[in-house]
What does this fold into?
Amino acid sequence: MEKNKEFSYKYPHPAVTVDCVIFGFDGKSLRILLIERGLEPFKGSWALPGGFVRMDETVEEAAMRELFEETNVKGVYMSQLSVFSEVDRDPRERVITVAFYALAKPSDHDVIGGDDAANAQWFSLDDYPTLVFDHEKIVKVAFSQLQRNFRAGNVGLEMFEDKFSISQLYALHSLVTQQDIDRRNFYKKMTSYEYIEPTSEKMRETPHKPSQLFSLDRTTYDLKVMESFNLYRYDHEEKAKVPKSKHHGKK
Amino acid sequence: MEKNKEFSYKYPHPAVTVDCVIFGFDGKSLRILLIERGLEPFKGSWALPGGFVRMDETVEEAAMRELFEETNVKGVYMSQLSVFSEVDRDPRERVITVAFYALAKPSDHDVIGGDDAANAQWFSLDDYPTLVFDHEKIVKVAFSQLQRNFRAGNVGLEMFEDKFSISQLYALHSLVTQQDIDRRNFYKKMTSYEYIEPTSEKMRETPHKPSQLFSLDRTTYDLKVMESFNLYRYDHEEKAKVPKSKHHGKK
DNA sequence: CCAAAAGTGTTACGAATACACCCATGA
DNA sequence: TCATGGGTGTATTCGTAACACTTTTGG
It folds into this structure.
């Protein structure tokens, strides 16, 4: 390929990428999903999953596509976090990135590095490798957002298995909000939600804690989450079938 | 046609723009600031103030710059709203836009169309001209955001003069939230805030309403707003390091 | 004086907090 | 058995809602 610059414009254009901050929870610590770059620049370094937006897709579609290609994770709720556009944030050229964030359960996905990623792996938020570009900053902003959402009442049930105990929720809530909520009040609050339904089973954890298991009424929960926050549902396959839906909430 | 496309890339790049939704309040209705386009495409049509992001500026800087160039408005709190990236949202080429929104007082700014704008003008949200591109959608999303913020406790004091009455706040709050809050409870709530300070003056309105005037402690208020929401302060001159003015004595 | 809107007080309710207590389990 | 953590009950606080009432001003 001799002529390798085929796309010309009258004015300079920045490149546009997407980056995804995916949070998970393993029962002990909060985790983020990272990839090991398989291409230059910074080949071999760790980074947020993401990549260039194609000309025939929206940034949301790009985020879902890249996440799936690079980590095999799909079907999560994605939310636009922020645009990062510092002029020198990428050494190659001017790159503006749209950051997304989502919650996922580590066990639910077959996390396999693919495509441009040599590897994909969950890391503890307390101890993850140095990230390339300004991805550390993006992670910080994402965590702030997560913290805000949690303090505002979000419970992050997307990060749990089908069956979960209130103490697990409590552990996560404490981790994220950094607040010292009374355990018993938290218990009552959670069990008062109509979308958290008790099962009769019991579960066993590390030391000796027999605790009641609960399950989630996804339908009710989704409604609550959707109206509380600005979340959009992105099923990876969505683009393939669904046309364009437009609904306006005019009164 | 000669060769007028000097900027070449190996892969296609979208163009990146910013658009600003500026809300104001005139005592009666909620207003937005629009410009009449002075250039093609859609020359003569109305649009949100905005334009292309330069290679040497962030999207925030671009938003402030374009807003100032096209409408003469500056020194407002800007907040990233969302990225709009539908593939066909611009007829010229692939254009991804970062939408911002801010609150301003209509009277404080000398709204003059400039640069790419033939004209700039405040319109009532109930009755504004058809907008180009997907700007109507952006306005809708911005209003939803505004509504969310107001329901969450924001009072939009940025939209008022130095002296204001509680009934004015109440009128705006009712307009935005569409909620029927008790006037008297609202009054007490507002006057309980430490950043809303009574003055001894009185003001006169349409029929016969003498009402107490209040003023705003900007410092305290800014703190509250900054931590409640994700707002960033952008003084237009900031980049050129011009000293900040606290009071505007101009009229 | 009267109408209309501003401003003040008083009570009620519900969610969030604080904390006391009992139960189940495993070592 | 005891230590540890799960689960339940109850009182208090506080912000908000509901609503009665007084004051001010223009006509």
User: Anything to note?
Assistant: The interface with chain B takes residues 4-16, 52-53, 55-60, 80, 82-83, 85-87, 93-94, 96, 98, 230, 248-249, 251 of chain A (CB under 8 Å). The domain at 15-150 of chain A is CATH 3.90.79.10 (Nucleoside Triphosphate Pyrophosphohydrolase).
